[in-house]
Predict the 3D structure of the following.
Amino acid sequence: MKARVLYLAAAALVAAALAFPLWGFAMAAPQYPDETLHLQVTRTGIAGDVHEVSTLQHFIGVRFPTELPELQWATRGIAAVAALLLVAAFTGANRFGRVYRILCAVALLTFLAASATVVQARLYQVGHERDPSAPMRSLHDFTPPLVGPVQVGNFTVWSFPHAGAVMLLVATGLAVYGVRLKPDTTDDAHDKGLGMDSGTNSGTNSGTNSVPDPVPNSVPDSGSVRLQPDRSGKAVV
Amino acid sequence: MTRHPFLLVAATIVATLAAVHTMGCGATRSARSLAADKVYVAPGELDKYYAFLSGGQSGSVFVVGVPSGRLIREIPVFEPRAAYGYAMNDNDPRRQELVATGGVWGDTHHPILSETNGMPDGKYLWINDLANGRLARIRLDYFEADRILKLPNMQGAHGIAVVSPNTKYVVVNGEFEQPTDGLVTNPAPYTSVVSFVDPDSMQVKFQVRVNGNIDIADTSKDGRYSFSTIYNLEQGNDMGSMIQYDRDAVAAIDIPAAENAVAAGRGEVRNGVPILDPEQNPGVLTLIPVPKNPHGINVTPDGRYAIASGKLSPTVTIIDAHTLKIVAEPEVGLGPLHTTFDDRGNAFTSLFLDSQVVKWNIDKAVKGASDYIVDRINIHYNIGHLQAVGGDHMHPAGDYLLALNKLSKDQYVPVGPDLPENQEIIDISGEKMKMLASFPTPPEPHDATFMAVSVLKPLVHQTYTPAADAVEAGKERVVRTAPHAVSVDMTLIRSAYTPDSFQVREGDQVTLKITNVETIRDMIHGFALPDHNLNIALAPGYTKTITLDAGKPGVYWYYCTNFCSALHLEMRGRMVVQPKDSTVTLTDWHAAANVQGQVVPGVPSTGAKQ
């Protein structure tokens, strides 16, 4: 059960991440003593102290991104990743299942890397492609890092992953870990017609779960009479 | 050798003097730093109390931090203030109230706070205008006057008090007597009334007629009585005849009895307000004889006694606030005017002539003990009111006392013949009073009251929630609404007016509705229009509508008077007034000037082709 729970949890985390802000920015300046400005990048756009930040940005010629088309494909990407993970929860112990899970982890890592690259490119753009007719003249170009502070005029701007991104990172960690984990037998899934791996019951390559299945439905909780993988994934005999 | 003893003696004397001098300085320095420590509020730290001081003939309320004595805000009430854009335009509701009720100045004396369970609740502050018989209410969530009431059937609104413990009424004393029929033809002696005002509706519910000049007010802590000092029971019209009697009175009005009489229709209704005549309504008014021409009346925090200060008599009269019997009349000093209290059974009375505050023990004075005087401290000079923190409420703090003095004389650097007023902060936490600090103000605080910062600060708004009719960004417009009227909906935000220019014609009436669309606190913008007698200030979220005559043809630059941003100086725009016979239309001019915001042609102007 453990691998399946792990993948289900990872899929749930990724899906839930869509409901939370993905990236956050905190802006502190001397004249905002106990009112640090915050922006959150969400699935639908930028939220938070948008009014104040867009009032300030014209002084330094920053073009406040009102349209972020990448958020649309990011949303689709996240949904796709959630689907991949959901499927992974029901893959078997055979070669196909293992490859699938590896690809799943690679897909997640790739998605994160691509997202980070796109976001960083945007951040570069914000700090460099500024309105040359902006009132403030002396400000140098700047590039907010993906995570960390940058000084922009009188503001210290912090970028950091918000709840949604943290959830994606955790899910990625789970997916990477899941590759190493021995997958469950998919008897339950098989019984319910959801089995991904027709070879599960042969036990040919599961290694740890060589004991034949008990008679289905002989006890209310079939798991309690089966051998349970311990935390290390080894069978307890 | 014979000269050496002399030198030795001389050297010893010099050394001793030096040592004594140093010690003396050391002691002085230590006392100074101890006092400084008690009032020092470091930059960035907040005071412990809001003190609300009446502004006297400034017509306003001063908000001062205690213990620092820093003037934090002036709340204009009865007088327009260009700096705050208060009551600066005919369209301003407060200005309209002021003009309709007696003029654009006032003389504020007594700030009082709304109470819940005998303690200030931070909802309202009321302030009187002695000169024009008015009462104003200030909302403490925004620190702004929200209602100005002319009190009918009386002249000179002097003492005011809320009916404890839950602000059932605001009591307002009419000081200057009037003919009983309200007409100048009545030769009978003049009288006055005590008004009972509903705190929420600001309507006068009833009045009680009292002979003589009704002075200072307080109420019992249980809601039963209002107390007012009365002078001139003689009902004389000149000073000589006002001080004939040996005793004047404290008027105790039984509020439930008065309410019953009003409910029974026993009031004579004049100007919409029932007036109760005490002679026809026995039990409503009790006159308690006190030495002549008394001044202050203050109820002890526990509600047991009402203490009348003698003014011309060196005594205070201690009245049982339940039985209305005099229980003691101890001497306290010359010119006792007002009394306040700590949390340990002590009273503090201001002595105008002695220029002192005297601290005395209430229980000892009531029991007739000879040692009821605890301490005296010199004041600079001629103290009027005094107020200890919470002394006017049920739970005094017993830490600081504010002396509000009439003269400052030598206390500040000379600034010409018109000297500032002087306030002094006194530490009353120990047995002996300690002078801590003083601070000057413009003329002229009379009285003060306090609220703990911990209670009021969370209730204070620092931006406005935009009103339903606020102008939204992007919906600015210029409309000719009538042949000689143009209406402009404008927004302002760092650092621009939208529209940044508009065209009108000589003879037009211009209506400007302006919204500050900032959402961050302290981002206030002004709108000053040269040669049109106009400056207004708008705090974030606030909308004001102003009307003005377009004036002579010309270009008038409106600009921001409240420093806002790095582009503050550039924050300006134009009102272009075309000559009467100009043929330039609103639409054409705005198109040519590339004005942001919508231009609605509306009604054609009569002065030109449209």
